[in-house]
Write a structure and sequence with these properties.
The protein is an alpha/beta fold and 257 residues long. The protein is 43% helix and 14% strand. It has a single domain, classed as Glycoside hydrolase/deacetylase (TIM Barrel, Alpha-Beta Barrel), CATH 3.20.20. Helix 1 packs parallel to helix 3. The radius of gyration is 17 Å and the shape is globular. The chain binds zinc ion.
Length: 257
C-alpha cells in the first residue's frame, strides 16, 4: 500500500446510442461521449494502463485505468476501434457465460481484443451476486471464468471485479486464494491509498459529460460526491437488487424532469 495523489479508475458499461424512442440505461453512454472522455483524458496527459500493468509496478500518479463491464457486443463493435484510434488499452470484465450469445462478445472477439493488448478479466461466470453464495459456488464461479478466459487469451486473468460490486462475505478470501492481483470494487474513490485488493473507481453514467468528468477526475467536490455515493452503496447492500434498481430508476426519472 502507498499513499499518493490518486489513480483514476473509470468504470463504463455499454457504449451505445439509444434506439429511437427508447430510454437509455442509466449506465449506457453514447460513443460520442466516450470519444470526448478519451480526448479530455489524453489532453490532461493521463497514462493509460490495464489493471495488469498497474499491478506489475505501483502505478504512476498520472495513471488512468479504463474498465468496461459485462462483455456486451458494443465493446468490440464500438469501444475496441475507438481505443485503437486513441492508442489506449483498457480492461474488460467478462462474464464468461454470456460469450457467443446475442448482443454479447464472441469467444473470437475476446481472443482478438486480448491480442491487441487489452486485459480480459474475471467478472464471474454467470454474473451473479457472489457474496451470498456458499464458498464452493463462489470458487466455482471464479474458476470457471478463469479457465475459459485462459483458454481464449493464453493467460489466466490477474484481475477480478465482483458483479454489482458485492465484495463482502467470503469473496475477498476466495479471490485471494485464486491469486488475483487486482480486485476492482464499485467503491467510489480515487485510490489515494493504493490497495490492489480493494480498488476504488468512478462509475460513469450517461449524465457524465466532459465538465462532470473533469470535476470527477480532478477530485473537485470529491468528498461530497463520495459521501453521496457511499450512502447509495450502503443502501444497495441492504436492499434486494430489484428494489435498489427500482429506486435508481425512479431517481433517474426525477432527474430528467
Ligand atoms: Zn457487471
Amino acid at each position: 500500500m502507498r499513499y499518493g495523489p490518486m489513480v483514476v479508475i473509470l468504470t463504463y458499461h455499454k457504449v451505445l446510442d439509444p434506439c429511437p424512442g427508447e430510454r437509455p440505461d442509466f449506465y449506457t453512454v453514447s460513443p460520442r461521449r466516450l470519444d470526448e472522455h478519451l480526448r479530455l483524458l489524453r489532453s490532461r496527459g493521463y497514462r493509460f494502463l490495464t489493471l495488469g500493468e498497474a499491478v506489475d509496478a505501483a502505478p504512476p500518479d498520472d495513471a488512468c485505468i479504463l474498465t468496461f463491464d459485462d462483455a456486451t457486443a458494443d465493446h468490440h463493435e464500438t469501444v475496441f476501434p475507438m481505443l485503437a484510434r486513441h492508442e489506449v488499452r483498457a480492461t474488460f470484465f467478462v462474464p464468461t457465460e454470456k460469450l457467443d450469445r446475442p448482443a454479447s462478445l464472441t469467444r473470437a472477439q475476446v481472443t482478438e481484443m486480448a491480442g491487441a493488448g487489452h486485459l480480459m478479466a474475471n467478472h464471474s461466470h454467470r454474473h451473479v451476486r457472489l457474496d451470498r453464495l456458499p464458498p464452493a459456488e463462489i470458487r466455482d464461479q471464479l474458476l470457471t471464468s478463469q479457465e475459459i478466459l485462459a483458454a481464449l487469451t493464453g493467460e489466466r486473468p490477474v484481475a477480478f471485479a465482483p458483479p454489482g460490486g458485492y465484495c463482502g462475505g467470503k469473496v475477498p478470501d476466495i479471490a485471494g486464494e485464486i491469486g488475483f492481483r487486482a480486485v476492482r470494487t464499485m467503491r467510489w474513490g480515487h485510490n489515494r491509498i493504493w490497495n490492489p485488493s480493494r480498488l476504488e473507481c468512478l462509475p460513469i453514467n450517461r449524465h457524465v459529460d466532459e465538465r462532470r468528468l473533469s470535476n470527477l477526475i480532478g477530485g473537485r467536490h470529491a468528498g461530497l460526491l463520495g459521501s453521496i455515493y457511499s450512502g447509495k452503496e450502503a443502501l444497495k447492500s441492504i436492499l434486494p437488487t430489484g428494489a435498489y434498481e427500482a429506486l435508481r430508476g425512479a431517481a433517474d426519472n426525477l432527474r430528467k424532469r
